[in-house]
Amino acid sequence: MSSSTPRLANAVATFGPLCVGLDPSPESLANWDLPDSPAGALEMCSVVLESCTGLIGIVKPQVGFFERFGASGVSTLETVINDAHAAGLAVIADAKRGDIGSTMAGYAKAWLTDGPLCSDALTVTPYQGFGSLEPAFVQADVSGATVFVLCATSNSDAETIQRATLDGQSLPATVARYARERTGTTDTVGVVVGATRSLADSGLDASDLEGLYVLSPGFGAQGAELSRLREIFGSASARVIPSVSRSVLTDGPTGVREQIARHLQELAL
């Protein structure tokens, strides 16, 4: 991966913005009659990757569902990332990392350089200060990756903190402003904004997000409708990457490709 070949932008340009999550949770594995083990996770992800190929360009492994197995789970994740890249898919590592100084630099090296976990994008949290994420931004500048900063998440407890204000501006709007200022004319920095609430309810306006890639969970099983993406994000919708996961798995391994095609059709409405 290099700055001359930004896989995320290429994937969106080639296949459109739909992202499919790779979430081998205990519940999903049980529904597929697969063992709750690294082998089960790999089998599920292999089916999903095969079903994605040629239809979409972006996948998003939820790192926690692999890390729960320890070293063997991380090894499985390395295989999944490598297989995704081999299939021509861009990978967003949903790891939600965040720290300061050399520790953040370590995370950046793990996820955004040419190692076994090398991904095309990484989710991070700005709770320790937006500037603390600079090592990841610097590495993304070099490697042509994108760092998605949590801005307004879709979980029900998010409002307890995200409703805070700074100098009269909502916390999500402040994060989005920092992201716009840092990314400039590049795609180094994007934001995560959930789709299950309106932008206004999240303390945002579409203008806060314009020019940024927006990774948006909450579609599909969580209730947001892909057909309403433009209604939800308004003038910022052209750079929204909507993510679906459980709704793709609902019909079992033989129905994944059909479900992806259905989501693509809904997104195009």
Per the CATH scheme, the topology name is TIM Barrel
Global structural class: alpha/beta
CATH superfamily: Aldolase class I
What portion of the residues fall into strands of 2 or more residues?
15-25%
The value of Rg in angstroms is 17 Å
N-to-C span: 33 Å
Overall CATH class: Alpha Beta
* SSE order, one letter for each helix or strand: HEHHEHHEHEHEHEEHEHEHEHH
Give the tally of structural domains. 1
**Number of distinct beta strands:** 10
Enumerate the spans where pLDDT stays under 50 for 5 or more consecutive residues. Answer: 1-5
Quaternary organisation of the protein chains? single chain
Enumerate the strands of the largest sheet in spatial order, edge to edge or round the barrel: 1-2-3-4-5-8-9-10
Helix content: 40-55%
| General form | globular
Mean pLDDT: 93
CATH architecture: Alpha-Beta Barrel
Structural summary, described in words:
The strands form 2 sheets. An 8-stranded parallel β-barrel has the order 1-2-3-4-5-8-9-10, surrounded by 6 helices. A two-stranded antiparallel ribbon has the order 6-7. It is 43% helix and 16% strand. It is an alpha/beta fold. The protein has one domain: TIM Barrel, CATH 3.20.20. Helix 3 packs parallel to helix 5 and helix 6 runs parallel beside helix 7. Helix 7 links the parallel strand 4 and strand 5. It contains 13 helices and 10 strands.
Write the topology of this structure.
Elements lengths: L6 H9 L3 E4 L3 H6 L6 H15 L5 E4 L2 H4 L3 H16 L3 E8 L3 H12 L8 E4 L9 H10 L2 E7 L6 H4 L2 E2 L2 E2 H13 L5 E5 L12 H4 L4 E3 L12 H5 L6 E5 L1 H4 L6 H13 L1
Parallel strand pairs: 1-2, 1-10, 2-3, 3-4, 4-5, 5-8, 8-9, 9-10
Antiparallel strand pairs: 6-7
Helix pairs in contact: 3-5, 6-7
